[in-house]
Write a structure and sequence with these properties.
By secondary structure, the chain is an alpha/beta fold. It is built from eleven helices and eleven strands. The chain has two domains: about 140 residues, Rossmann fold; about 140 residues, Isopropylmalate Dehydrogenase. The longest helix is centred in the middle third of the chain and has 19 residues.
Amino acid sequence: MHYEDIYKRINVKDPKTVNVVFPNSRSIFEALAEAAKKDFIIPRLYGKKETMVTFSEEAGLKTAVYIEAETAEIAIWAAIADIRDGKGDALMKGDISTASFLSPVLNREKGLRKGDILSHIAVGDSSGYHKLLFLTDGAINIVPDLDTKRAITDNAIELAEKILKRKPKIAFAAVVEKLNPKIPETIEARTLAEEYTAKGYEAEGPMALDVILNAEAAKKKGIDSKISGDVDIIVFHEITVGNYMLKSMIELQHAPVGGLVMGAQVPLILLSRSDRPSEKLNSIVLSLIE
């Protein structure tokens, strides 16, 4: 499974509506224009109409719905209200801070809350690996505790199963494979691996990155692994490691990547200002998989 396979699965006869909060950059409009041109989406844009129309014309975005909103705060609440009213299938971050984007989503009365934990799943298509890799969480949860890691894993499974149409193979990452009380993530990785194995998943941990990605590394280390070299989901113990893994794929390998925030009633497209239009488009496409 690669990104080209995901693109082929999008239903162009029934374009989804993506509500975009305060878009204010050329790269976002280029991605929206490409997605709309492919009949993937109908953008609903919340912000200053004059500015949005100018960006749309420059990027070649010909089909969009414009909702006037003077501020990012007004825009996010309007976009959420429309989704709650059935006018929107995904929510996309524009020129608004991450905190200001996510806080209204988690509002218990007026937001899009589904559970207690939102988490980010990056999906990378590296030339050095034979299939998509789902990486979590390199964007939201800084140093998650055990319960939060369970929620993060569940969110990643939800997305992976939609895309892969099967149960994913899950690796709980650590710096070493042996249990070490001085390295707490090794203990938690083993606990989680046992729990998800009991749930019917092929799950292992703790696993170092070379063993996760390369079956030969496992053999050389004398590790008996059923999933080494064939992992789908990597769950990292803290945000920096996951973020560095993703950024290395982008900057060193020029790998196609995208990502979503899961755990809300609809997929959340949370973009970085440095993301390229292709990465924004990949993220949009991920949000459309049913």
